[in-house]
Structure formats: C-alpha cells, structure tokens
Amino acid sequence: MDGKALAAKVDVATKNKVQKLADQGIVPGLVVILVGEDPASQIYVRNKERRAKKMGLNSVVRKLPDTISESELIEVIHEYNVNPKIHAILVQLPLPAQIDEFHITMAIAPEKDVDGFHPLNLGRLLVNKVAKTPVACTPQGIMTILNAYHISLSGKKVVIIGRSTIVGKPMAALLVNANATVTIAHSHTRHLSEVTREADILIVAVGIAHFIHAKDVKEGAVVVDVGMDRDADNKLVGDVDFESVKPKAAFLTPVPKGVGPMTITTLMAQTVSLAEWSSE
Ligand code: GUN
C-alpha cells in the first residue's frame, strides 16, 4: 500500500480547502511546539513545517529549551489557545522528564487539539461522536489508507500491537466504531505470535525494528507497519520485516512511504478542518 501516493492525493483536496478559506480571508494556522533538541523530533518537526508551508498554511514552530518548567510550557500553550491566527496546536512528544504529558495535553484548548489527545476529544472518539472532532493523526491516516484500498472492516479480526495514546488506543476505537473485532496486544501479551497469526488485519506499532516476521502473519492478511526504526546501518526501517512478510500478506505498508506520509497529510487536513470548524 503506497502511503506516499495516497498522501499526495489527499493533499490536493486539502489545498483546495485552503484556497476556499483564503477567499474568506482565513489562513489555517498550525503551531508546532518543540521542547529540547531530540534529533528525531527535530526531523519530524522540520518535515511538518515544510509540508505546512507547501500547503499554504500559517506555519509556526516554537522552539523551547529542555529546561523549561511545566507551568512555563502551559503559559506558552495558553498564549496560542487565545491567538485567533492559530487554529491547531501540536506539542511534539516525547517531552523532558520534568513535564507531565497529560498536564500538557489538558492545557491545549480542545478545539485546537490537532493531535486529538485531549481527554474530551478521546472521549468523543470512544462514544463515537466524532463530528467536528480531531482524531489522532496516525490512526486516522491508517483508516484513510484502509479505506482507499477498499479493505472492509466490519466483522474483521484486527490485532493492534501497541497500546499508546498516540496510536494503539485511538486506533482500536476507530476500528471498533467501524465494526471490527479488535484485540490490543502489548509487551505483556502472552503467546503474541499466536495472537497475531489470527489477525485478518495486523497493525504493528511497537517501535522495534523488524519485530514481526512471516511466521507471525496469517496468509493473506493486511499488515500495517507504524514503525519508524533504525537498523544496524542507521537506515529507516519498520517494525515489520518487509521482505519476509511481503509474499504472505495481501496488502502491506512499506517504511518509508507508508504510514508516515499519511500521518503528516492527516495533520495538514485536520489543521484545515479545525480552521473551518472555528469559522462556522
Ligand atoms: N511524537 C511522535 N508521534 C507524535 C504525534 O503524533 N504527535 C505528537 N504531538 N508527537 C508525536
């Protein structure tokens, strides 16, 4: 499954919406807050900035020192909560140890929470009331991929490996809402390979290079690789051993050019949606 090509298609639709908003004098604004100098986060933030500018958004990157206190960071978030030029606020994770991610998530105005991590937005997702609700970008991007490849979800057995608030839990909620039968596996799951071999659709978000091999996958399964790992040669690879799984899977997302581009594309689309909803 080609995430890059699909992302380009979705971007065209998003750009058209940006144009329509421009006709009303609205430029969707996204602020990405980066605390500290984590090299991977710096790359992700640079990519988001580049894409946001390409889409014609008002793109702001706010860099803060890793010594910042939780209350100082919350002050900065409040500044953007009341800034009418900013429609979407993203605080890049992970954060330094002195800052509680949950407190930061709670500080973001729910109507500007482009990551969909605020408990109000997560709650709306759980009760399946997602109209005008931001949803975590990676799971939402995966839903767009599954949909684009006409992979039906109703009654399907889906196994997600990973229970994070960024991927696993919102992914499970989206899939249950789409009538799939969902299992969330994680580091405490016993006999993991037996569990994954049952999956019609296997979504892997563990963060370990080449964690899943052909023996862990059912013949004809759909496999979605959320990993962004480095192999021994520092090459970007996924959680799935692509070469061994490819002949067995009906569909498989590559790394790179799979889930990653769709995540950023969804972030852009959702920034535009937040700007549209705020103007209604
Ligand atoms: N770090 C890794 N993925 C994400 C994400 O989706 N959102 C944020 N804010 N930080 C991340």
TrEMBL record:
Q: Tetrahydrofolate dehydrogenase/cyclohydrolase catalytic domain location, by residue?
A: 1-115
Q: Which InterPro entries does the entry link to?
A: Aminoacid_DH-like_N_sf, NAD(P)-bd_dom_sf, THF_DH/CycHdrlase, THF_DH/CycHdrlase_cat_dom, THF_DH/CycHdrlase_CS, THF_DH/CycHdrlase_NAD-bd_dom
* Keywords on record: Amino-acid biosynthesis, Histidine biosynthesis, Hydrolase, Methionine biosynthesis, Multifunctional enzyme, NADP, One-carbon metabolism, Oxidoreductase, Purine biosynthesis
Catalytic reaction list: (6R)-5,10-methylene-5,6,7,8-tetrahydrofolate + NADP(+) = (6R)-5,10-methenyltetrahydrofolate + NADPH; (6R)-5,10-methenyltetrahydrofolate + H2O = (6R)-10-formyltetrahydrofolate + H(+)
**Residue ranges of every copy of the Tetrahydrofolate dehydrogenase/cyclohydrolase NAD(P)-binding domain listed in the record:** 136-276
Identify the HAMAP family for this entry: THF_DHG_CYH (MF_01576)
Q: How does it assemble?
A: Homodimer.
Family assignment from sequence similarity = Belongs to the tetrahydrofolate dehydrogenase/cyclohydrolase family.
State the protein's name.
Bifunctional protein FolD
The organism's taxonomic lineage, starting at the top: Bacteria, Bacillati, Bacillota, Bacilli, Lactobacillales
